[in-house]
Amino acid sequence: MSEYKYIIFFLALLIGVPVAVVLAYSSKFWEKIIVFMMMFFTASLAGTINFYSHKDYRGTSRGFEVGIVDLATLVVFFLIIIKPKFKIKWFPPGSLLFFIYYLFSVISLRNSANLLYSEFEVWSMTKMYFYFWVWYNYFIDLEHIQQVIGMLPVIVIYTFLAVVYQKRMGVYQPGGPFPHQNSLSMYFMTLGGIFLALLLEIKTKQITTLWLLGLFGICSFIECLALSRAGIVCYAGCCTVVLFFSFLSRFRTRKILVFILISLVGLAGLLFYADAIYERFAYAPKSSMECRENLAVSAKNMANDKFFGIGLNNFGVKVNAEYPYSKHYLPKGFKEGLVESVYLMIAAETGWLNMFVFIFMLAYFYIINVRNIFRYRDQKILYLPIAIAGGLSALYVQSYLEWVLKQPCNFYQMMFFFAIIISMARIYQQNRKRPAALVEN
Question: Whole-model pTM?
Answer without folding.
Answer: 0.90
